[in-house]
Amino acid sequence: MENLTVLGTGVLGSQIIFQAAYSGKNVVAYDISQEILDKLPARWEQLKPSYLNDLKDATPEKLDAAVSRIRASADLADAVKDADLVIEAVPERLDIKQSTWEKVSAVAPEKTIFATNSSTLLPSAIAPFTDRPEKFLAMHFANQVWIFNTCEVMGHPGTDPKVFDAAAEFAEQIGMVPIHIHKEQPGYVLNSLLVPFLEAAAKLWMREIASIEDVDKTWRISTGSPMGPFQIYDIVGMMTPYMLNKDSDDPEMKAFADKIKSDFIDKGYLGTSTGRGFYTYG
């Protein structure tokens, strides 16, 4: 599969686009307006220094070549017309994902495999809204894909095993380590481990048990981990924990979401992508 289309150019969508192009794939970046797409060149310039710093084989020439393999389109039919694989990275709401795949199904070629990058939703909840459930599955990427390079591949009971294998092979071709998930699991592997950890940190902060810095320091020193939970929140970005918790049945986590919105999102502090979240970044 040489031709990829990514639906959604937010933090993770743009990373998938750039990583696939860096690995030699032809990539179409789709979003709902040209105004959004016009911001992509600046996003590529933000990513380039990270690749040069974190990857031994990165060079300015290779990064420029990656950009040359990316085409942007706000026309859905145009964006998917040659796609071997479509990866959807739209907001983490089931209704948005379902309606997106209904629209894609109406215009995508028969050959195209469909994948959602959802971090919490199950493929079986979305597959019926496509015209090819046997070619539908999840490919979940971790944030900062060029260094935290796992891709959790999870089908649903109706996914064709050959499609599953093709998706896992594609992930490997773009520098990912494919994680084969054998049964549907909310949160996959990564978030089944990560979400309870981050929630515990949020509650320590909301209860004023310890400062953000001391919570992170405790985790780093005691476990040898390179990052604490609030540093991870900054990498994930503020929108994800807000969307996951704004309607939570847990009053503490709902209050955490409200505080994220008022203290960070409303001020434009979205995490490392904007240079400021729980911490300020140079």
From TrEMBL:
Gene3D superfamilies, alphabetized: N-(1-d-carboxylethyl)-l-norvaline Dehydrogenase, domain 2 (1.10.1040.10), NAD(P)-binding Rossmann-like Domain (3.40.50.720)
EC number: 1.1.1.35
EC category: oxidoreductase
Domain 3-hydroxyacyl-CoA dehydrogenase C-terminal: 187-281
Annotated keywords: Fatty acid metabolism, Lipid metabolism, NAD, Oxidoreductase
Domain 3-hydroxyacyl-CoA dehydrogenase NAD binding intervals: 4-183
Pathways per UniProt: Lipid metabolism; butanoate metabolism; Lipid metabolism; fatty acid beta-oxidation
MF GO annotations: (3S)-3-hydroxyacyl-CoA dehydrogenase (NAD+) activity
Domain of life where this protein originates: Bacteria
Catalysed reactions, as listed in the record: a (3S)-3-hydroxyacyl-CoA + NAD(+) = a 3-oxoacyl-CoA + NADH + H(+)
One Pfam family hit: 3HCDH_N
Keyword Ion transport found: no
SUPFAM superfamilies found in the cross-reference section: 6-phosphogluconate dehydrogenase C-terminal domain-like (SSF48179), NAD(P)-binding Rossmann-fold domains (SSF51735)
Listed InterPro entries: 3-OHacyl-CoA_DH, 3-OHacyl-CoA_DH_NAD-bd, 3HC_DH_C, 6-PGluconate_DH-like_C_sf, 6PGD_dom2, Mito_3-hydroxyacyl-CoA_DH, NAD(P)-bd_dom_sf
Xref: NCBIfam families: PRK08293.1
This protein's name: 3-hydroxyacyl-CoA dehydrogenase
The organism of origin for this protein: Dietzia aerolata
Lineage of origin: Bacteria, Bacillati, Actinomycetota, Actinomycetes, Mycobacteriales
